[in-house]
Backbone:
């Protein structure tokens, strides 16, 4: 009896502090500026984003659409340094200015030494960044940060905008925490693709585990960026870097990279806003163990950027689908020959255009802008 | 009224089992815990190593306590010159159970050094008898295996995610109190310490959400799990030898 009383008192104390359970997650539709007829997309502009001074390598870009009243249409984040996993890798950012229609000079916005000092413990290396704007308009950045070991010893570092202004010259971040995702010294989770926005101002962020086996996980956050739990997205153990796309408010697909030889793009689906996930048969699209990016363009209109090969990242395609299962190529974004590499795509809607960014040769972040046919 | 009761109970149960309303510790609480936790663990490690007969310091209490205080202070140094910077990089923060256990063992050694009676059977090397505290160690070892399998997606349930629910706190508290209940009739002090360590960890979790906001991280970390298995294997052979 005493045992139950003491345990009950602890649970009462615990539950008294917690908020009530969140409602089922409901994704918001695509940006109002999304081009509804994805088949009619035409290229408007392309180029490369300026690199920070003295940085030879760039990888893993992520695009964040900015509010309509902001001077910039987009902010791009990526990691830059001497090479991938180099000691001097930091998170770089650039903004696409609405007046000049050009990318600003890049600025380094996250330094592992400064963040380690604020956290109280070291960060060995930095990797993929993913940005999100919360319900209050503050930017959040989720960054891969490794402990002892390689990428498999990664953790997801959650940063929040600490500056009053989010124009690039002012933009600063402070650490919130390393997200608690695993019991095993909190290894080995990484983040790569953009979150899916929810109608309560929160979001669902796709991450993945990659120590030996690979599996995708969905993390939910409220409108302030508070963590609301995690859900495993697949029973399979060879899938990573999920890219989420909403078919309706509660029916979403996760399109994923497959690490197996001769792999295909893999799919998992939820019909209850991410509470439960089920694996679907692989797509017919080849996947050379490479990241993909998906985005919704409207009801029954999904877009995907992927490497259309089983062995090479030298070509990059933009494809569309009405059901997320059958895909048709809209156009080739890049067509090189090995050892050329175009990889780690990201997409966003801004100013009535579809923006695509990707790594070019591990040295630059390339971008393309698409709009509706006039 | 009676019709409302089942829905109230169902609502309360749903809330207790929910894993989607976790509370995570504040930035300042995590910082303090990180340094305090490693400070206590390093202090115990220092005492454990210097007290070994092979070191030659086994009977030199002054050296032992100098090492203990030095290691404890090292954890509080900021930046790369401090131990916490590197231990946190590799292992994050220790569990509350590890910290309280190390603190309890330090106190026991301290009392022993002062000539006071040592708690009977309370040893970090191996269990000396069967009993609830031993079974608690076995349960913790099994929990560690389950959490390890869960990390590699080898379980049909998501055990780590369940650690964000209030129900997991209840489970930890009930299991943690068992040594005290069943130990009333045997060596009471030892079982009180075992229960006290687990309950203190649960209380620290409920009040401050330390170290991560997940109750499994509060009661068991991988190093404690490894140490428990060494302890249990040693105990098994000791009991087998004396059976």
Residues:
């Amino acid at each position: 009896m005493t045992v139950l009383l003491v345990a009950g008192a602890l649970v009462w104390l615990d539950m008294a502090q917690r908020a009530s359970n969140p409602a089922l997650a409901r994704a918001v539709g695509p940006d109002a500026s999304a081009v509804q007829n994805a088949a009619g997309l035409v290229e408007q502009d392309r180029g490369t984003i300026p690199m920070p001074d003295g940085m030879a390598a760039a990888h893993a870009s992520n695009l964040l659409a900015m509010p309509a009243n902001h001077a910039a249409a987009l902010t791009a984040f990526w990691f830059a340094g001497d090479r991938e996993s180099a000691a001097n890798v930091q998170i770089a950012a650039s903004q696409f200015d609405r007046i000049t229609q050009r990318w600003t000079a890049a600025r380094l916005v996250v330094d592992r030494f400064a963040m380690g000092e604020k956290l109280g413990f070291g960060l060995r290396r930095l990797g993929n960044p993913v940005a999100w704007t919360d319900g209050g308009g503050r930017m959040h950045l989720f960054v891969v940060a490794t402990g002892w070991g390689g990428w498999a010893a990664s953790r997801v570092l959650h940063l929040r905008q600490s500056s009053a202004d989010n124009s690039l010259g002012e933009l600063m971040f402070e650490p919130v925490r390393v997200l608690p995702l695993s019991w095993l010294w909190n290894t080995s989770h990484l983040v790569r693709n953009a979150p899916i926005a929810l109608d309560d101002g929160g979001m669902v962020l796709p991450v993945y585990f990659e120590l030996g086996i690979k599996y995708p996980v969905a993390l939910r956050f409220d409108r302030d960026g508070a963590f609301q739990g995690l859900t495993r997205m697949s029973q399979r153990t060879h899938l990573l870097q999920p890219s989420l796309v909403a078919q309706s408010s509660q029916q979403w697909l996760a399109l994923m990279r497959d690490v197996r030889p001769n792999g295909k793009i893999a799919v998992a689906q939820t019909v209850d806003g991410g509470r439960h996930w089920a694996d679907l048969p692989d797509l017919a699209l080849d996947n050379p163990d490479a990241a993909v990016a998906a985005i919704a363009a409207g009801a029954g209109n999904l877009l995907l950027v992927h490497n259309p090969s089983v062995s090479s990242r030298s070509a990059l395609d933009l494809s569309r689908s009405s059901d997320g299962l059958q895909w048709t190529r809209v156009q080739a974004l890049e067509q090189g020959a090995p050892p050329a590499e175009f990889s780690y795509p990201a997409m966003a809607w801004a100013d009535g255009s579809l923006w695509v960014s990707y790594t070019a040769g591990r040295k630059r972040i390339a971008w393309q802008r698409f709009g509706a046919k006039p | 009224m009676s019709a409302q009761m089942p829905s109230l109970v169902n609502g309360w149960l749903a809330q207790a089992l929910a894993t989607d309303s976790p509370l995570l510790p504040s930035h300042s609480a995590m910082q303090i815990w990180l340094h305090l936790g490693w400070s206590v663990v390093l202090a115990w490690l220092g005492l454990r190593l210097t007290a070994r007969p092979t070191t030659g310091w086994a009977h030199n209490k002054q050296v032992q306590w100098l090492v203990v205080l030095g290691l404890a202070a090292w954890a509080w140094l900021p930046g790369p010159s401090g131990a916490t910077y590197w231990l946190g990089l590799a292992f994050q923060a220790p569990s509350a159970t590890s910290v309280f256990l190390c603190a309890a063992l330090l106190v026991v050694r301290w009392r022993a050094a002062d000539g006071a009676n040592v708690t009977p059977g309370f040893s970090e090397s191996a269990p000396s008898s069967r009993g609830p505290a031993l079974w608690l160690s076995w349960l913790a070892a099994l929990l560690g295996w389950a959490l390890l399998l869960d990390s590699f997606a080898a379980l049909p349930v998501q055990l780590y995610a369940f650690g964000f629910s209030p129900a997991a706190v209840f489970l930890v508290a009930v299991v943690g109190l068992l040594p005290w209940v069943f130990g009333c009739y045997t060596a009471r002090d030892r079982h009180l310490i075992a229960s006290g360590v687990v309950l203190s960890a649960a209380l620290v979790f409920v009040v401050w959400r330390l170290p991560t906001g997940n109750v499994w991280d509060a009661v068991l970390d991988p190093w404690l799990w490894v140490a428990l298995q060494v302890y249990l294997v040693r105990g098994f052979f000791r009991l087998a030898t004396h059976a």
